[in-house]
Design brief:
This protein is of the alpha+beta class and 93 residues long. It has helices spanning 15-26, 31-38, 60-66, and strands spanning 4-12, 49-54, 75-80, 83-92. Helices cover 29% and strands 33% of the residues. The termini are close together. Belongs to the PpiC/parvulin rotamase family.
């Protein structure tokens, strides 16, 4: 049985911007608001919501982070071919 997870993410081109966003999140900024404002992924319009997906559906670095990082805590930046991701895993099963 494949594992599943649901996550939000913010995708940006620059590592520095990813670190800046992570710092804002650690100070209590809204993940969804920052995703709408900064994410280059189409999911940004939905507050970065990727919905539920199965392990192995996302690119390897992203997949590994989602299935190992702490739940409900912004994590990153995770570098992929798309750029730098800040990830917030809502649940895993």
């Amino acid at each position: 049985m494949a594992k599943t997870a649901a996550a939000l993410h913010i995708l940006v081109k620059e590592e520095k911007q990813a670190h800046d966003l992570l710092a804002q999140l650690e100070k209590g900024a809204s993940f969804q608001q920052l995703a709408k404002k900064h994410s280059t992924c189409p999911s940004g319009r939905n507050g970065g919501d990727l919905g539920e997906f199965r392990q192995g559906q996302m690119v390897p670095a992203f997949d590994k982070a989602v299935f190992t990082c702490p739940l409900l805590k912004p994590f990153g930046p995770v570098k992929t071919a798309f750029g730098y991701h800040i990830i917030k895993v809502l649940y895993r099963s």
